Amino acid sequence: MRPLVRASALSGYIELVQALGENPKPLLRRFNIDPDRLDDLDYLIFFHSLMQLLETTADTLQCPDFGLRLSKKQNMETLGPIAIMARTSSTVGDALFFIARYISHHSPAITLALDDTSAPKFPRIMLDINVADYPYRHQTTEMSIGLMANVHAMLTENRKKPEAVLFRHSRTLDIKVYRRHFACPVLFNQECNALVLTPEQFDFPIRTADSFQRDVIANYVIKKSGGSPLTFIEQTKFIISRLLPTQCCTIKTVANELFMHQRTLQRRLKDEGHIFEKIVDEIRRQDAQNFLAEQGMPMAQIAGLLGYQEQSSFNRAAKRWFGVTPNTYRKSLLSIAKQKS
Description:
Blueprint: E1 4-6, H1 13-19, H2 24-30, E2 44-46, H3 47-60, H4 66-72, H5 81-87, H6 92-102, E3 110-115, E4 124-129, H7 138-155, E5 164-166, H8 175-182, E6 186-187, E7 193-196, H9 199-202, H10 211-225, H11 232-243, H12 251-257, H13 262-271, H14 276-292, H15 299-305, H16 311-322, H17 326-340
Parallel strand pairs: 5-6
Antiparallel strand pairs: 1-2, 3-4, 4-7, 5-7
Helix pairs in contact: 4-7, 5-6, 5-10, 12-13
């Protein structure tokens, strides 16, 4: 089943495309998106359609920074009721926690996580797009990180900037464009997409804090979305994806992250029809497809991000997944990308 996203993710799209001299309606209809319903709070579209629309629009308009430009037209209200939870939280850290916990109400294809353990002096909020079979996601990723930077600016009353912005993909624009947009260092070919902050920014107080209103909205979102934001399997997959680059992704370490014994994790996975090793292999395959679509990402780095200590192990896995070597598969992806453009 393909994930959905609320149409508010395209806030500002029509105005931006028109400003760039193009009619947005044919582009939207090409991907089965009704241009007259973009303001409908309950209108949902396929996340694949969103990704394809943004990539196609950037190519059609010859505007490689389209995702960044679109994020400038978006703000916290793009997240709907989650924005109310954020504004009524006590601190920026609490607000980011609630956004991360309930982001699936906006789209189950997006995962956010707060990481304050790997580098305690520089906590970060990490973003991942959980969509298989479509590795072309530069525009969507840059729009999403741009939106998160806007949210951070609003929560800190424009008084704080991120310490850095991290992207998993290769740089496609002049670095000055990114630095001008985010007003901080921007790094590419990283292990995750993230805003890097400071403990002081996490502790920044929010003047509109109202815990009662926040909890009321949280209960509403839970009922609206039908329960827990992330299922047990989704949580497991996200933790595996986060641990792979550390090359310490074992069932024991994943179980520790889930606060359970590894035998308990094995039993729960078996009860739901899953095997740990097969989940790891599938995540590696999906990530490999995404990384290989990045022309500038070295093979050794890809192997490391997938949790392989040896390049040869990655080569064997790629032949099993794709039937060809990583280099051959990358060439086929890049050839398809050129045909699309």
